[in-house]
Write a structure and sequence with these properties.
By secondary structure, the protein is of the alpha/beta class. It has nine helices and eleven strands. The chain is globular, with a radius of gyration of 23 Å.
């Protein structure tokens, strides 16, 4: 008989893509994961992984079993939800991943939730959107709060429920003493081409949105500084280092007196989305956590 724990390991491997990443996600050693998957191969009666000295990938049989594992784990989770609904009260852990700029806004509401629900344990972890999706599908987290800067964010995800918590407008962010700070909205972005503009590195979702706004405004920055983290960028603007285009939530209350937020000539926004596994919906702990996220957003 196929072991449920080992099926879960295979499911994790299918999501993570390597034994090392699977081990890191689960807190196991790579050798322990490898040994358990080898045992599962004996149970399945065939090779599930194509191993080389440096990597491993699923065989055709491995992919088929990983697909079955996903269905089995969903059924187990649905059974757990059904039993939990009969208790009527939220309890146990709820693991939430969130991008940092959103976590700052949602954190107080989640802390208040824990104070109200004594049997509920809320754990929040930082994760980029792509990592959050992988962890959600792997069942490392229960709710993934992600941001999507695309003009038309996807509305459906396979085996996941998506709920837009809010649309977070992008704003032109200037130091408080910037000479353009007192000008009426909207400010012509081409008049700010000299910058220096501060943005995320190429490949980051916020950088894609930043480039799109400037391209639409026909602005070619004369000076561009790149930094990881929207909070870092906002802090640099507050220090008078440069200017930027940021989601309004990313500019925390501590910085609001040090910067000026102005509307963009062409409105743009990021979507803040809460993702859950479809099979987990209805579990009281997840439902109250989602309600808290809605209220905070």
């Amino acid at each position: 008989m196929l072991d449920l724990h080992r099926l879960q390991l295979l499911h994790h491997f299918a999501q993570q893509g390597s034994i090392a990443a699977t081990a890191a996600a689960l807190g196991y050693s790579a050798s322990a994961v490898s040994q358990q998957l080898a045992t599962l191969e004996r149970e399945a009666g065939g090779a599930l992984l194509d191993r080389t000295a440096r990597s491993a990938e699923l065989t055709v049989l491995g992919k088929r079993l990983a697909d079955h594992a996903a269905v089995v784990l969903e059924a187990v989770e649905a059974a757990e939800v059904d039993l939990a609904t009969h208790t009527g009260s939220p309890a146990g852990p709820v693991r939430i991943s969130a991008v940092p700029s959103i976590a700052v806004a949602l954190g107080p509401a989640l802390a208040a939730l824990m104070s109200r629900e004594r049997d509920l344990e809320v754990v929040v972890r930082q994760a980029a959107p792509s990592e959050a999706l992988s962890r959600l599908r792997s069942r490392d987290v229960d709710i993934a709060v992600v941001d999507d800067h695309a003009p038309s964010p996807p509305t459906t995800y396979e085996r996941l429920d998506a709920e837009v918590l809010r649309h977070d407008p992008l704003a032109l962010v200037l130091p408080r003493d910037h000479p353009f700070g007192a000008r009426p909205d909207p400010i012509e972005l081409r008049s700010l081409a000299a910058g220096p503009w501060i943005c995320a590195p190429v490949g980051q979702p916020s950088r894609t949105a930043f480039d799109r706004v400037l391209t639409e405004a026909r602005v070619t920055p004369e000076a561009r500084w790149e930094f990881e983290g929207l909070a870092t960028i906002a802090a640099l603007v507050a220090e008078g280092v440069g200017i930027s285009i940021l989601p309004r939530i990313a500019v925390t209350a501590a910085l609001r007196d040090l910067v000026v937020l102005r509307e963009l000539p062409v409105p743009a926004a990021r979507a803040v989305v809460a993702l859950t596994r479809t099979s987990s919906r209805g579990r009281p702990a997840i439902e109250v956590a989602l309600a808290a996220l809605r209220d905070a957003a």
